[in-house]
TrEMBL record:
This is Uncharacterized protein. The chain crosses the membrane at residues 6-27, 34-61. Keywords: Membrane, Transmembrane, Transmembrane helix. It comes from the Bacteria. The keyword Transmembrane applies. The lineage of its organism: Bacteria, Thermotogati, Thermotogota, Thermotogae, Thermotogales.
Length: 86
C-alpha cells in the first residue's frame, strides 16, 4: 500500500512538471488553459499534502507568464524611453 501511495505522489509531481513545461511552451491561450486545468486536477487528485498542493497551484497559475519572448526592437525602444536624457 505504501508503494502505491508513493506511485500516486510521483504521478502528481509528473503532472505538475509536465503541466508547467507545456504551459510555458504552448502559444495558444485556450490550449494553455486546458493544460493548466488538467495539471491542477492531477496535482489535486494525486498529492495528499494540502500545503504542497497549494504551493504547486500558486506556481502553476502564473506559469503562463514565466517566459515571454521579447524582440530586440522592444528592448531598444524600452532603453530609449527609460534612459532618455533630453
Amino acid at each position: 500500500m505504501e508503494r502505491f501511495n508513493i506511485l500516486l505522489e510521483l504521478v502528481g509531481f509528473t503532472a505538475f512538471f509536465a503541466g508547467l513545461i507545456l504551459n510555458i511552451i504552448v502559444s495558444n491561450a485556450l490550449l494553455s488553459k486546458v493544460i493548466l486545468l488538467l495539471a491542477l486536477l492531477g496535482v489535486g487528485a494525486f498529492i495528499r499534502n494540502p500545503y504542497l498542493v497549494v504551493l504547486m497551484t500558486i506556481v502553476l497559475i502564473p506559469s503562463r507568464y514565466f517566459y515571454t519572448p521579447v524582440g530586440k526592437d522592444v528592448i531598444h525602444d524600452l532603453k530609449k524611453y527609460l534612459f532618455n536624457r533630453t
